[in-house]
Amino acid sequence: MPRRTTFASPSARTSSGSPSKQKGAVGTLSNFQHPPGSASLFGIAVLDSPRLADPSKPRTITYDASFWMGDGSMPLMACFRYFNRDNAEIPDNGTFALMATVAQPTEDAELCTDGKYTDYDLIGDILWMAYVPDADARRRPVMTVNGPAREINREDASAASFKITANQFVQQLKDANPGQLSVIIEIPDSGRFKNGRKPLPPNEGSNAAVIGQLTSVERTAPTMAAVMFCLSMENVTYFPRSHTSLPVHHPSTPDSNSSKRKWAFEDPLTTPLNPAKRRASASSDSSPEGGSQGVTA
């Protein structure tokens, strides 16, 4: 059954329906020796179906999150857990900008639902989010992935790519941690990379930190289970496999007479900034005054 999340423009916003039972991400490498790594996702999602894993912990909320992956494409479905640290009032559903650590679900995942773990492509923990009801959710998310590079494709410059299997701790896996995320990184023929040498890893096992837009999800028929997440590289850093300690940096003591800046941020819901003063105003007072905050974490 296809996923039915509606990604409407801000002028034609509709609420999303309940999550469908479409097959999602699966797969573990139980006998795999876990290398270091991490995986995070940034994007605009439609959140709904809030629920509690433990009624005695009302600030720990589980959500279903849908991310747009293109018109006519199956949306990315995630099950995220969020700790409402500030005990803020949060709508039960709507459009949110968020950052979350992510992994592919397994049968050990605690999802707080009667559905199967294969209903989801990703699980993870929301580290930060903000309610953005007027935002256009029709934007593909961005991922940051860190881990050893493998299967480097150097043969075809137009299809330069490599893979990373990143490990990431997520609360939903508990003792089954770390979770894993399989990613293929493609280096596009963009203005940044086309005229120069494409920045492929120097060798197998090189530690790579990649930022890229999630362009598609490779799935297997007939279950349509997600097996590989495809990123278009935006930036990459390679770290040497070295255990040599770096010198310790000792910052100099600042001048006690140096000026300090205080940034006063107006509450956008009650006091819009004057167009002539769109930049935060500076003040001689070094102690920031507390302003009202939106629904963020």
Q: Could you state the order of secondary-structure elements as H and E?
A: EEEEEEEEEEEE
Q: Which percent bin holds the helix content? A: under 10%
Question: How much of the polypeptide forms β-strand, as a percent range?
Answer: 35-45%
Rounded mean pLDDT is: 79
The first-to-last residue Cα distance is 34 Å
The class by helix and strand makeup works out as mainly beta
Helical stretch count?
0
Task: Indicate the multimeric state.
Answer: single chain
- How many beta-strand elements? 12
Q: Compute the CA-based radius of gyration.
A: 22 Å
Poorly predicted ranges (pLDDT <50, ≥5 residues)?
Answer: 13-32, 277-297
Largest sheet: 10 strands, mixed
Morphology call: globular
